[in-house]
Fold this sequence. Notes:
The structure holds three protein chains of three kinds.
Chain A: E1 4-15, E2 18-30, E3 35-39, H1 46-53, E4 62-69, E5 72-73, H2 79-85, E6 90-93, H3 107-117, H4 123-136, H5 153-164, E7 171-175, H6 183-200, E8 203-208, H7 211-217, E9 220-225, E10 228-234, H8 235-240, H9 245-252, E11 304-305, E12 311-312
Parallel strand pairs in A: 3-8, 3-9, 6-7, 7-8
Antiparallel strand pairs in A: 1-2, 1-4, 4-5, 9-10, 10-12, 11-12
Chain B: H1 22-43, H2 45-65, H3 101-136, H4 140-154, H5 157-168, H6 172-182, H7 184-200, H8 202-209, H9 214-250, H10 261-270, H11 273-276, H12 279-307
Helix pairs in contact in B: 2-3, 2-12, 3-4, 3-6, 3-7, 3-9, 3-10, 3-12, 4-7, 5-6, 6-9, 7-9, 8-9, 9-10, 9-12, 10-12
Chain C: H1 2-29, H2 36-44, H3 50-59, H4 66-79, H5 95-130, H6 135-149, H7 152-166, H8 184-222, H9 225-232, H10 237-259, H11 261-274, H12 280-290, H13 293-321, H14 323-326
Helix pairs in contact in C: 1-13, 5-6, 5-8, 6-8, 7-8, 7-11, 8-10, 8-11, 9-10, 10-13, 11-12, 12-13
Amino acid sequence: MSVLSVRDLNVTYTTKGGDVPAVRGVSFDIEKGRVLGLAGESGCGKSTIAGAILRLHSPQTKIEGTVLLDGQDVLALSPGKLRAARWTGASIVFQGALHALNPVQRIGVQIAEAIRVHGMAGEREAFVRAGALVEQVGLPSRRIDDYPHELSGGQKQRVMIAMALACNPSLVIADEPTTALDVMVQAQVLQLLRSLQHDLGLAMLFITHDLSVLVEVSDDLAIMYAGRIVEEGPAERVFRSPVHPYTKALAAAFPEIGDVRFRGQPSGLGGDPPDPQLIPSGCPFHPRCAEVTEVCPTIDPELWRAGEGRTAACVHAEGAPVFEGVQR
Amino acid sequence: MTTTEPALADAPVAPPPGRLTPRKVRWLRRRRALGRFWRQYRASGMGMFGLVILTFFILMAIYSALGYGGSTNPIETLQNPTLEPPSLEFPLGTDNNGISVLSLVIKGSKTSLLVGLIASVISMVVGTLIGMAAGYRTGWADTILMFITNAFIVIPWLALAIVLAALLGQNLWIIIMIIGLTSWPGTARLVRAQVLSVKERTYVERSRALGGPGSHVVMKHILPNVMPVIFANTILTIAIAILSESALSFLGLGDPLNITWGTVIDQAFSKGAITIGAWWWLIAPSTCIVLVVLASTMIGFAFDEIVNPRIRER
Amino acid sequence: MGTQRYLLGKLAQVLLTLLFILAFNFFLFRLMPGDPVTLLVRQAGATLSAEQQDELRADLGLDKPMFPDQFLDYMGDTLTLNLGESTIIDPGRPVTEIFVERMGRSLILLMTSTIASIVLGMLMGIYGGWRRGGRFDNGSMVTSMILYSMPEYVLGIILLLLFSNVFQIFPTSGYIDQVADYTGIAYVADYVNHMMLPFWTLTLAYLGEFYLVMRSSLLDVMGEEFITLARAKGVREKYVLRRHAVRNAMLPTVTLIALSFAFVLGGAITVELVFTYPGVGLLSYDALQNRDFPVLQGTFLFFTLAVLIANLVADLTYGYLDPRVRTA
């Protein structure tokens, strides 16, 4: 049984300006010990999914579908059971530890809070455990007496990771954990995450817009665009031989030094992601697509087979039905 | 990154005939920005309500300035009944001299609003100058200016105003000066904070790097960004100035030759309106003050929401 | 270490400001048009020959040069609490004596009403902000805005009309019943009875502002990421509110409340006048009417000192609440 099983997830924000469909029919699974990377530009809905898994959105936000965490449907849990499932079933490592930590509380208190809220230990022992967790992420245990402003960005991120592990979750959701850090620190934190994930056998959902990071960390990769998954498969294969034109553009935007493919001109992707309230007809990517055909604005692509264990929502996928005017 | 100019692609406007000079372009942008601002403002219920009320009183003041509103000369009202509760003939009742309270209110609106306006302009100008000086030139000038500003914030303004009024007299213009010169610290602090935050934005440095002289930097970049905040603050300053004037008048420090809402309340109170039970005499001018201040606060709120877009609706 | 430095810094600031204000006070009164002696003489309605006036001047130390002699005299006098003698209100009586009599009443009134105002305002603000848009919030917002727009004395007049004239519950003036000579509990009860209306006037007058400030701070804080994190950890809503939201929302609130102390004092003067409450506020009004400058100078000093101390308390409270200012 998968640790996380998401089926037909729809998340719609309600705002003064109307409904905003941020996530439209997303499905995926994460097995124990596997890392699923979720990539896409800002606004594609990936962070929304993170919030939806633990039901952290405001009550006005409409969420439909099924989210099975350790076999339980999170979306159907009573408030009490929901609170119990939070952090013990799945925890989140937030981005920009800038304001993700309470500035007026000591680190140790915040970590211990997670432990004590779930009744896993008494006060003294909770602090001892907090100290151990902090050591696990590479900081001396006495740091638990520090306030967040006394730590550097990288150190704060480590604390976030330590906190995420406090209740031995089955799933860790990393939401842009390295985005706000500079490159050197980024590498260290990634290394830490990888080793922890491996040692503890955690399932992980790694969310970022930085594709190059994902390739190093993930086992499987899912690319999101305009609230939908447009390509999915084993990480290495999706990155090396992308099928969906959007994935191709993303991959090309992150040149690797030494890789022959990137010699010559740097590439980029023109245009902007669509406004969720004004999603183009048919395939949402067609206005920016380099391989657009005449049928693209008219059909709604599904995740068709695009190779061994891979899918892509594009008419060019090998498993896609035959359309007029589309060459394969 | 935020800039002061809206995207040109915002609303389609046909270019005017003739050459499109940079000045014309700037003008077009500003007009468009104003239009957008007005549309946003109209959406705010509070803002519109405040605007309507304020306009009502401004019209009242103009009405009074033109000479209408009935007599407030006790000699002329000798035949009127004194201390009458509101009736059809005297909608707001009469005072101890038979003067219609409605006339008092109308007459008072002119000076009350005028004092509020002028005093707050003084306060705003002084505060802005000091705030900008402190914000722009960091170092010992800033420290000293800020120390003085903070010291003045500590001084309870009414205590200071009383002393000044006792020393300098009770002329209307002196009152205006007193109010203006005791309320600048708030504006100064606000302006300085804004200047500092604007300074941090890169394009000020860029302009400097390109060799623009000091004042050029100030006018072109800092001022346009500080103006909206100053403007929003001015509305609130007007409200405070009106409250201040009424307090001073209530303490008997008003100009005896000019009628303001504050002086009416003072008169009523001193002549024992409470014991007599002549509530209309007290409540009418009080309500005017409350309404004007309320209206200004609401307008200030609405302004603030537009100028400081904070996404609070989720 | 950092805490000590913060404390010392604040104390130094207070002392410096105090010195500045004393100097300011000195120069302010020397601005008097005309010379103090001629003024005195005119007020007393007496006629003195030029010689006698000179003698008087020497007596009062006015023949010495303004700076530094008079200035130092003044500083020395003030710091040893020699504030001169009243000229009109109670000729010859030391100002400090008059003060001691009245100070207690004003201080009790001011302190109780300020504390009540702050506490009530904050509690309401927290509740209103938490249940934003609810009936309590909307009702409170409207009430607060109206109260905020009302000059304190107008509120006093309204309360006076209602409760002394219409419903004759509370007395109209004074601080005790001068005729009946109560002692013990009856005295206290009478004292409180007389204080009720002015107390409620001052409390309600500033309640609105504190409500709005607290509510606004709370709303700002609730958008921060660490609030989401707390919920994600499985913390119950009421603890999220208490431990995370409120503790942080207090910070800007304390700062903004401190800024309003100067206005609270101003309100005290007018309110004491409305209720003929014989405290320092009414004293300053009397001194004003009679141009009794020594007393006026004294009341100015008193009010400024009060605000200064209140600000110090607020600063210290802030230092206690926010660990960021404490660390060097």
